[in-house]
Design a protein that fits this description.
alpha/beta; Rossmann fold; Alpha-Beta Plaits; 2 domains; six-stranded mixed sheet; four-stranded antiparallel sheet; 11 helices; 29% strand
């Protein structure tokens, strides 16, 4: 077991930042830790990295207790905090050597060269960190988090503030790293979670409200089924709207429609049978899944609580 959390709680005065969290993460998983601002994501990460003590409950990293084995855990964990604090007047390789010194790495030059290659810092390695774009500073942050070859990476908002090109690069880098390491990352960008993570943990007001694979989580939200369909010819929309179970028909093209249903019967079969009865052919048809963003809103909408 890579990470285990049991009844983990953190209290600041009268406020519970996290409340009775329980989860386990296997080796080699990329897990997204999601929640609204103030939900307890960063607090959870800081406890796992031994930066903050918990108020109660337990947490282990590869069997080591965060309360009694903090030094051992810090050797196993790489941490990129949201603020990505860097020494801007230091050169990239100088900074990585400085961080490597904390871990008493034997082959410092060899490990720095490896991190430069993995994070794509080759063209920037001789520059001062202050001269780098935010995307490359994030790469330096990832390099320092991995300099000691940790088993677990904890990344707090690793793509915050990046432009689309930088975001794609860092996303690809994290996925590549995730083939060998356990990664816990927090983000507000749902598309990133869908693209990178095998599993999602959602917290709201300090409590866990979901823990599942991305696909299964998308299927949990109840509501309308939405199907996009394109016929080979013009149809009578009123006939389509009158079909039992169909709640809404939206025209999206000459012969294309978005059809919604609240019924339990497969909407695709209903549309196919309709096309046959009308003497039409179906050129395209696809069922739209609930986006992770919709799932997130449904589970963390405090107005419903």
């Amino acid at each position: 077991m890579s990470v285990k959390v049991q009844a983990l709680t953190k209290v600041y005065g009268e406020q519970k930042a996290i409340d009775q969290l329980n989860f386990e993460i296997e080796d080699g998983q990329i897990v997204g830790l999601l929640g609204p601002n103030g939900a307890g994501k960063s607090t959870t990460m800081k406890i796992l990295t031994c930066y903050l003590p918990q108020s109660s409950g337990k947490a282990w990293v590869h069997g080591y207790d965060t309360e009694t084995d903090s030094v051992a855990i810090r050797k196993l964990i790489g941490y990129l905090p949201e603020s990505n604090p860097l020494y801007l007047d230091m050169y990239v390789k100088e900074y990585l050597a400085y961080v490597a010194g904390f871990y008493q790495i034997a082959s410092v030059d060899k490990q720095i060269a490896r991190m430069v290659e993995i994070t794509g810092l080759g063209l920037e390695q001789h520059k001062k960190i202050g001269q780098l774009s935010k995307g490359y500073r994030q790469r330096v942050g990832l390099a320092q988090a991995m300099i000691h070859d940790p088993k677990v990476l904890i990344l707090d908002e690793p793509t915050s503030g990046l432009d689309p090109n930088q975001l794609a690069d860092i996303r690809g880098l994290i996925k590549e790293i995730g083939r060998e390491k356990t990664i816990i990352l927090s983000t507000h960008i749902m598309q990133e979670v869908e693209a990178m993570c095998q599993r999602v943990i959602i917290v709201n007001r300090g409590r866990m409200v979901a823990d599942d694979a991305v696909k299964k989580l998308q299927q949990r939200v109840q509501g309308e089924t939405v199907v996009a369909v394109e016929f080979n010819n013009v149809i009578r929309e009123d006939a389509l709207r009158k079909i039992t179970g169909i709640s809404l028909v939206i025209k999206t093209g000459d012969n294309s429609y978005e059809v919604r249903s609240t019924g339990k019967e497969d909407l695709r079969k209903i549309l196919f049978d309709f096309a046959v009865a009308q003497g039409l052919s179906v050129l395209n048809m696809s069922k739209k899944e609930n986006s992770l963003e919709e799932v997130f809103r449904d589970l963390t909408n405090n107005k419903k609580k």
